[in-house]
Structures are given as C-alpha cells and as structure tokens.
Amino acid sequence: MFGSFSHKTGNADHLEEQRKLKALRSFQFSCEQAMLPETPSSSVHALRPADIKTVAAIGSLQRTPGSGADHEDLLKRTGKSLLEVSVETLAALISSFNPSVLHQSPPSAIKGAAADNQTTGLLHQAEEIVNLMKKNQMVDFQNDWKLITVFFSAENLCSSCASTQLRNCVFDNLEELKAVLDFLYKKVQKAFVNLVDSTELATSCLACQDYNNARNQCDCVGERSTVDDNILRWSYRNAWEKLLKSGRYDQKDDFTVVLQPTLQERNLLLRPVRDGFIATSETQVKTLEEYYTFMAVALWNNMMEPFGQKQPYDFTEVLRVQCPSQENPYLFTYRNSNYSSFPETTNTKDTSQQRIYGTNIPCFDRGPSDTVPFSVHNLKPADIRVIAALGDSLTAGNGAASKPHDVLDVLTQYRGVSWSIGGNENISTVTTLANILREFNPSLIGYSIGTGKETTDNAALNQAVAGSHAEDVPAQVRRLVNLMKNDTRINMTDWKLITLFIGGNDLCEFCNNPVQYSPENYTYNLQTALDILHREVPRAFVNLVTVISITSLRELYTSESNSCPKLLMRLLCPCVLNIKDNSTELKKLIYFNRRYQERTHQLVESGRYDTTDDFTVVMQPFLTNVKMPKTQEGLPDSSYFAPDCFHFSQKSHSQAARALWNNMLEPVGKKTDNQEMEDEIVLKCPSEAEPFLRTYKNSNYTYSNQTPNYGSQLLCEDRSPSSPPATSVHTLKPADVKIIAALGDSLTAGTGIASDNLLDLGTQYRGLSWSIGGDASLQNVTTLPNILREFNSMIMGYSTGTGSANDSNAFLNQAIPGAEAEHLPAQARNLLRLMETDPRIDFSADWKLITVFIGANDLCNYCKDSDHYSAVNFTSRIRETLDILHKQVPKALVSLIEVMDVLPLRQLFVNTEAQCPTYMSDYMCSCVLAGEENSPNLAMVGEATRAYQLEIRRLVESGRYDTHENFTVIIQPFLRNLKVPLDQDGHPDISYFSPDCFHPSQKGHSQLARALWNTMLQPVDQKGDSFDFTDDIVLDCPTQNKPFLGTYKNGNYTYPPVEPTNEPVENWGSDLLCSERAPSSHVPTSVHELRPADIKVIGALGDSLTTAVGAKATDLLTEWRGRSWSIGGDETLEIQTTLPNILKKFNPNLFGFSTGSSKETAGFNAAEGGATARNMSAQAHELVELMRSSSKINFKEDWKLITVFVGGNDLCQYCLDKETYSVQKYVKHLQNTLDIFYEELPRVFVNVVEILEISGLRQIAASSLECTLAAKDACPCFLNPEENSSELQEIKRVNRDFQAEMLQLLNSGRYEEREDFAVVIQPFFRNTLLPLDSNGKPDLSFFAADCFHFSARGYAEMAMALWNNMLEPVGEKQTYNNFTWDRSKLKCPNPEKPFLSTLRNSGFGNSDLILKKTEPSVPYWAVIVAAVAGVLAGSLLIWVVSGGRVTRHQRKADTENSIKMVSL
Predict the structure, then answer these.
(1) Which one of 506, 736, 858, 1130 is the catalytic residue?
(2) What is the spatial distance between Cα 443 and Cα 437, in angstroms, rounded to a whole number?
(3) Which of 41, 198, 204, 393 is flagged as catalytic?
(4) pLDDT tens, residue by residue, 166-192
C-alpha cells in the first residue's frame, strides 16, 4: 500500500515520505504485496514490476518558441517537473512490489530544460542519465532492470507548409527519435523504455505556431485548421509506431521500446498557448504537480494493459491503480501482447462507379429559359451562370483524391473534385454538381479546380474552410459576397446557385461545449449566414444540405475489417467515436444530430427566405438518414472514404454530387432523405412538365409550421353572478370570482410554454400558464383566467407576459420554478401581502380563487432523501400553507390540485422515437427519468406518490378548512392518473411538451386548463381522477341545477370518518437490517478503513444532553446516562435506540458505554450537566486517563469512537460575558480538546456534532406560560432581547460564527497527518423539521416535561441521525432530522466501501469543505433543535421553530441549483 512505500534515491536530497505520497492518496490501489522474485526475469517480455530496480526519465518539454513565459519558470514555482514527478510516482508504485527500487531524478542541469534542438537535448539527457546510473554505487548497471521513460515531442518548425515539406518534417522528426533510441539500445542493457508523446504539453498547435523563424523557414501562409493539426499529429505518431513495430529495438531479449498513449494537455490547469504557458492563478500552478502525478499513474496503468486495450488518459475521475494480473504479471510489450502490426486491408470488389468517377447525362433538353427568368421558382438548370459553395473540409475536398493509406495527403484540399463545386476535367471523368451544370450551361463560372486553400485563385467561389463550424459560416458568406461583387465576370443580376453544407465538426465537438454547439446556436449561425445572402445577393437559389446522420461513422470505426487509423478518427471526431454504445452521451449525440436537422427544416419552412421572388432556400435532405455504405460481404466499405476514414473519397464525392442533383429536381415534400450511397445513382432530368429546380412554390408545398390556435369556445348561456352577492363559498358562481391567484412550481410559473429550444427554458411564460395566465383572450389562449373572464371581465390577479414572480406582470402568480412543498408557506405569505396591499383589491369583500399545485419536485428528489421528502413532511408543509390561507384570507375557494403522478413521463425518455433530451434526465427528475426499468427508485416514487395523495385527501377531508362559510379547500384529482399522449404510430406525442419533454407546451397547458375548469364544476364525489392530453375536452357550463363551483357541501358530500390513530408505541427501539456486520479481516491500521465492527471502545464528552437529562419524561433531576443517545447502553437496540446499542449489533463486546443513572456506571461518558466549551479540555483529560487506566481495553491497539457535542450553554450565556463565551474562545477550547485526543489517544475516530442555531427558541418558549418562564432563565441571551433588536441580531450572528469557525477548524487539515486519527463533523442537526401533532402543534412526545430536554423518543431520533451521518460520505451527509418515527431508519454500511466516512475516504482534500465566512448572513436552517445549557437547571434541550421563511438545505451538487429553470 502507499503508506508502506520505501524509496531510496541516488540523489542526496529526497522528499519526506508523507510529502512524496500526498498526491497518491487519492488513488484507489489494492494490489497485493508481492514477494520479491528469487530470480529476476531474463527477458524484457516477462518483466514484472518487482524485477525493476531503477526508474529514470528523460524528455524535452520546451516552451513554444517566441513565447513570453518559460515552462521551466512555472516548474520552479511548483518545485517539480513532469520528469521528476513521473520518476517518483512510478518508483512509488513499483516499491509496493520491490521496496528497494531506486529512482534516478534528472540532473539539475537538465530538469525540464529546453534545448534548441530536441535531438541534442535528449541525447545529452540520455548520456547524462546513463552516466549517473553507472556511477551510482547502489545500481548494478549491467544486471539491474531499468524502467526509462522518454518524453518525445512532435513539435517542429515546419508548420503550414506544402505536403511534400511536411513529409520531410515527419521524416526528420523520426530520424531524431531514432538517434535517441539507438543510443539507449546500444548503451543500456536490461531496459524497458516507455516512449510517451508529449507534444500537447509542449505546444498547443503542431501545424501552425506563427513564430517568425517558422515563417522564414517554411514560408507559411495563414493558419491551419484543427483538421490539419490532427492529421499531422497522427502522422508523427504513426511514423513512431511503425518504427517500434518494425522490431528495430526487439533484436535483444533484454531491451524493448513501447509507445504509450499520448499525454493530452486539455485536462491540465496549466495550458500552453501561442503566447506561452499560461497559469491563471497561483492555486492552479500549485496543483500542476498533482496533475503530473495523475499522468504518471495513468502511464503506469497503460503499462499494465496489452496493446489494443490501452486507454487515453482521463483526469476527470479518480484513477484506480491497475495491478498485474495472475495470468499476465508482466509489463506489456508488443511481443507478449500478441499484437499484429497492422490489420490487413479488406479487398472489395469494385463496381464501375468505383473505378470511373464520370457520369453520363441522359437529358436531351438542356436549354435555358427563353428569357432570363424573374422568379426563382421558374429557374431552369441552364439559367444558372454562377456557382458557389460554403462549408467545411468536406466541401473543401480534403483527401478527396488521395491515394489509399496516404493519410498525410488528406491535408491536401482537392477542390477540383468537390461534390458541390469542383470543376476538374468534365462530367465524363469527374462527377460534381458544377460539371453536371456545365452540361447545361458551358459558360458557368465560380467552380473550383485543382488543389489549394480557399484563398487561392483555384478555389474561385468555393469558400469552404477546412475545420469550420456553423459559427464560421457568416464570415465565409461575407467573403463570398465580396468576391462576387468584385469579380468583373459576374453581374449581380446573374442567377446563382449556392450550396451550403455544415455541421459535421459541430457534432464531432459538441460534447466539449454543448452550449456552443447546441442545436439552437447551430440554427442561429445558419440563420445569420442565410440572412446575409438574402439581404445582399439577388437572384439566388440556395441549396441547404441537411447535416449528415453522423452516428453511422461509428460502424466504420468499430469494424476490424479495415485499416482505418482509429486514433486519428478519434482525434477528428471525439464526441462521436469516444463514447460507448447505449450511453447517455450517445443518446445526447443522437438528439443533437436530429435537432440540427429538425431545426434547420423549421428555419427554412418558416418562410423567412421566401419574401422575394428572386431568392429562396431549399432543404436538400439526401444525407438525413444516410447509412454507412457496405461491401458485398455486409461490412463497412472504407473505399468511400479518404485515407483518414473520415473525409469523403472521390467515390463518395461523385455519389454525393449525383444525389444532390437529383434532390434539386425532386419536389419539396417528396425529396429523397435516405440515399443509399453504395447504389448506382442515375441522374434525373428536368421534365417537360416540370423543367425547373424545385422550390416550395413550384412543388405546391405548404409549410407545416403555421402558428396553431389554442383557444376554446365557451357555449354557456348563463354567465351572470349571484344576485344578491354570494355570502357562502358553497354558493359561489364563476362570475362571483373577482380575484384569481396561484401558488406552485415551474408548471404554474409557465416554464418553457412557448419555448422552441432548450436555451429558452429559463423563460417563464406566465401569461400562458394554465391556472393563472391571462394573455390574449379565450379565443386563442385557453387558461383558467381567460375562461373566468368570459363570466367576469373585471377579474384580476392573473399574470401576463413573461418574467419572474417578482415582476409586476406576474401579479398574483407567486409560483417559483424549482419550488418544493417546503417553499409553499413562503409563497402563501407573499401572496397574502400582495392582496392586502394592492389598492385594486377589496381584500375583505372580494371572492378569491386560489389554485395550489406542488409536489412534482419533491417526488423527483424522493429517492435521494426519502426522509426529507416523506409523505408526513410533505403533508406538514401543505398543511402549514393552507393554515395560513385559512386563517388570514377571507372569502376564498382554494383549488388544491392533487399531486401529479410523474412516473408516466418516463415513457418520453425511454422511447427513442420521441427524440427527447435523455441526457437531461438526471438533472430534471433523476428519480423517475433516469435508471433502469423496475428499479427500486421507481417503486419508491410510486409509493410516495400514492402516500402524498392519500395524506392530502385525509388532511382536506378532516374538515380542518371548513370551519366557516367563506373559506374551503377542494381537491381537484384529475392528475392522479396521468396518461402520456401518443401519436398515430403509438409513440409519445411530444407536441404537448416543451423542448425538454418534461414541462407542458402551450398545447399541453391548454388541455390542463380545460380539464381543471371542468373538474371545478363537478361535484366532489364525481370529480374525474385521470387525464389524457389527447382527449377532446369541451368546456362544460354551470347548469341551472348546479350553478356553483363544486364543494363538499353543495355536492351533498359527506367526508369519511377520520381513521382511528394507531396504538401508542411501547418503546423507541429500532430494527437493524444490515446483513453484513463482520469486522475487517485484519485490524485496520488506517482510520479511513474502519468498519463499525472494528470499534471496541466508545466514549463521549458534552453537557446534559449527553448525560440524558429528561430521558424519563417525568424525572428532570436524574441523569439517565444509560439512555444517552451517543453513549448509553441500557436495554437493547430493539427497546432503546442509542449509538452503543447499534454498535453492539456489530461488536457485542463493545466497552465504555454508560448504564443506569449513577456516576459509577457512567463508563467513558465524561459529560457533565451545565458544561460549556471551556470544560471540554478537562473532560478530555479525564476520558484519556479513564481509558489509559482501564484494564478492560488495549489502550494502544483498540479502536475508539468518541462523540463531542457542546456549545448551547456558551451561546445562551454569551451576552452575560462576551469575552468568556466569544467565538474565538469557543473554537480555542474545542481545538484544545481535540489536540489532547490527537496527541494522547491512539486509534480514534472523533464525532463532533455540529452546534445548532437556537434563535427559534423564542417561538417555542411562547407556546405556553410554563415554557416561557423556564426558558427566560435557561437562555436569557436569546429570549430577553426584543424582536428585531440589535442584541438579537448580534447573538444570531455569533451563533453562525460558532458554526463557521468550527467547520474551519475541523477541515483545516490540522488533524489529517495521523493515519489512525480522524475528526468528522456530523451535521444532522443543521436543518431539523419540527414534529407536529395532528393539530399542527409541536409534538411534545419528543420532549421531557420541561419542554426543553428530549424524552427517550427524542434521544432515539438523535442516535439514529448520528449513526446515519457516520455512514454517509462527507459532502453527502444528511443535514437535518425530521423526527418521524420509523424503526427501520437505520442505514447499513455501503458494501463497496463499508467504512465510517472520513474526509479522505469520501474523496475530499483538507480544504474542500471549509465553510467560508463570506456566506450570506441569512439563517439557512428551517426548524432547528438547539442544545441549551441552563444557568439554573443545568443543560436544557430546546426545540426551536424558526419563524422565518423555509429555505431548503444546501445540496452538494451545483446542478441541483442550475436545473431550477427546467424542474417543476
């Protein structure tokens, strides 16, 4: 293991062991300790890690010439170079197999040195390192096995030069590498040499570096594209690979060279750029060494992998260190990997089209129109005089005419054979669109010939640029327009044909920046380009070729029947080829690809480019569903591709030209969209009846995206209000309603209703919201307010337009996206304030209709935290909201929409035909949309949904809100059983949803509004409980017999009797359902591998909470230590839940717990009633001495668990003595206490239970006279100050400072240096929900008779919460306890990591979790349980209810916050 590494170095200086291994601690390493081999291997092909005696490295990581900052300067700041870190890391790993391994650091003169000539620099380093090993007396140079890593760069001064010179560059680079490897081969015996491509660490761009020397030497012109970079990079590596596979360095059995995967700079915080190496901050510079360590570990892992299975380095995950297998215990070489040099090239039978790329034109009528046409819809092929093209390397013709296997020649742009614009030779030998058109008009101009970039004369009007994305097309258009305007041969009144094809590079890179390459941005960039053409180019027919279905490229990549350069293919298109089958990434790719195509069609079919008669854009879709061409054997046919297996060969260019021509002649709506590329494609001809290039107009095609009307008809004759005015909510007619309001989440806020893309999902279309929107009128927008306005045109409160709840146009729509039930009371208070203060509202006289809809977000998060989102808690929050309305809002009918069953929405994401953004499922509703079918999560959510619905019905049917005639709550149950809409093919109909397939679209909102209205009119016992989006819902009308909104009373409905309560619980024990309770196989030496059963001793410090005052509710004088939550051992777990009783299930011989109520049987419970933080040091000394002197334990060997909980008394007395009870003193006392344990106790895990926010004590103290009197004496500093006084604000601030400083101390790293010691903060008290009884009042069964201390039930809850916190990883710990009794709440250790959680085994560094003091000074805990030490009565526990707004406890993942715009 890393902790036992022993390094010896040939240098005088070496790092301390702890510092050496610091960066390695985060890696998962489980290799068994290997026995040293009796005899080292005699062959390098059977070389085991234990055989290696010396590790060394050489490399030239020079800075970019002309840069402003030297890499070495930064290395000096970090103190380590890549060479040094790689040597030390590899030696550290090998030392687990051979503790005597040496690592030979690079000589100081050449560490990270930059030589002007790479060969000279590397040769010099090689000579130096060989000399050092020979001189080192600890090295047997002739007989010891050596591991040497050579970092070699493909960087050179030949940048954007001609292809022939680039070939010379590759050749020269190869000769340089040979010189270095030949030297090592000749001079070093017994060596395994890693060759690592470090190009990306040395320069950011191979093919063009733009420095003066390069320009002078190569006469470079312009910049090269990423396509060129990738091809050139691959060419270098391919040359190296061929050299090594040639066997040149495998002639001896004791020497080999192995090419390992390329190091990639993109994952480093330090990145080379054209102006030199840039580090954005000192912190980033300091972490560079850690990233170098990641590189070295990844290099080690690849040494363990055979050829063909080596993986690119990925620094986004914690690496697991690979171990040699029993079957293959050696380092892999070419020979022992059984790796063939190159796969055989598949021979395929050529058809005539494969050999001959010409075509016959079967058309007889090739003449132009009699007169030059004025309309683009009457344009014949021969009328076209100018041809142009825009796009990327597929239009530029990269590699189109390259010879097989000549990958480097793909850099050549064969524009003359480009499918859409090439004009080489003629149609008999070269099939291109231009050559076809030349058969109709020999005077055609603009086509490209020969080779060259877009800037050459040969390119003409082919302005495609290799490597371009959609965002680059507007610039291409601008250049094209300028060229045409400045060309004397072109009259701008000439008819022009312009072909645009773009998007492949966007899809190939979308995963690196999904926003930049989103379908929305893709379409926007196309729109910008087309707008320029539309505005500035008259008489133009624009072919917009649909982006190719790019996933088919994966077939060619995965096929083993070809010689495709797979590494290069990955470089050229990583986001398509680097992802796994059936992965979320693949689903996301398919979605993006399809949306590119769909949105492009939508743009064109909007009619945006059909406003004049001389311009049009026509979609040519022949590549939309194109499949990979196959050989006769059914294998992917690489002959359709250039040597890089990515670009088109001339064979494909010819086929694409034919397919495009045919598309142009096919009518819109009937165009081919799935061209079979391997088929013989016969050119079509214009017919006598239809001689024109087809447009939407001459195809008689009607665009389908007309704006739909979502209005409704209301056929009600009686729309009058009550006369006289209604006095009872049970005789309320629709026209009586004057005020309408709504509370809820994003479905009510209107998220995404009118959005046509994912980026717009942040828009809240409140004016279209089903229950509260008031845009337009019922004739075109169906919402509940628009329906009610047909009865009362003066109704107010509805929202209009877009915006947040704070905007004035939101009015009484107080719904907030992302809201959960816990946020609803705050919304109700805001609504109440708005209604009371608005002068347009007669608050006491106007009848109000308030719609409440919440719960989907609670269900979507239920599987993550079933306690927090329990039905009990959900109902409690709804009850609090309704209580506010019931108590303070007169004349109101509250329409409570029953919780929607969200499970059916999963169909939208499971059915691939729906084309929904499945990659967003984790963010929108992970408990429902993500995961496998029949998963436990789905079952949990299903049960929770039914429980939510049942408990809310019980709440409303209890009669709680029917205590007077002017208020009622009615459940509208129509969403209880939701049906997903299906189209004619049986697939989900996503037209009812916004682009995220989760929020309803306006079409969906219209249906919801109709269903809600009809349900409101139905009697309570006849209300519908299902909803189908596709139903033909006709708006109902009030009838003469039933003219009122339906309530329980006017429907003659009798609520069922309240079910009797359960029998009282006899005890507060728990059931532990953990099957695995065994200790570690060997007593662990690390606290980070400590299992519950390994704990043999338990102890505790604290105040009267830990002495368990009040555990027997009627006795407030006795300390019932045997029932203490953290240290009591009375009874068994089945009867009383305490931490020791839980641990005794794992280790029955646990020692130290308290029993009974006397000091003599207190065990290792050193707590004292009334204690403050300054008493903790004395308690700590006492506990240490108790343990040290005990004959029952092995003081040095036994693992100990100690729980510390203190601070309430300090806070309650702060105002009496601010110096004594200051934050600084509190933290200092706590530090002194922990220092005692750290210095004197071996093998200990310390729980520090987080101190509480106790300001809410003021409210619970006011609940009764007895509590008020006791509390004022117990905690004067919180209870005596006036509300909103500066004294109260100060004590609240001090409370928060206690918390912040405690976290700073515990996460400072002060207690991280010992392997057998850990301090972990347990935060379960942070967000605690007040337990309420059936009347909504505090449930006093949790408390002792004094209202302050806990009862046995309360202590049991504390014990359960503490135990669960101990098992939860740091950063994922539950930060609240809802105090809902459940015997099965106890968690079990994770089988994969069955340890008590620490910072380290949770994957955090020391500073990761420090709570910054700059956090907002707003209380963020909802209802807190506070420990209060009484001055008179000792330590008292106070249950605190915060009167402020509920704010949800913080989540560890930022994505929970960012998705609020798309969650219900």
Answers:
(1) 506
(2) 10
(3) 393
(4) 677 777 778 888 999 999 999 999 999
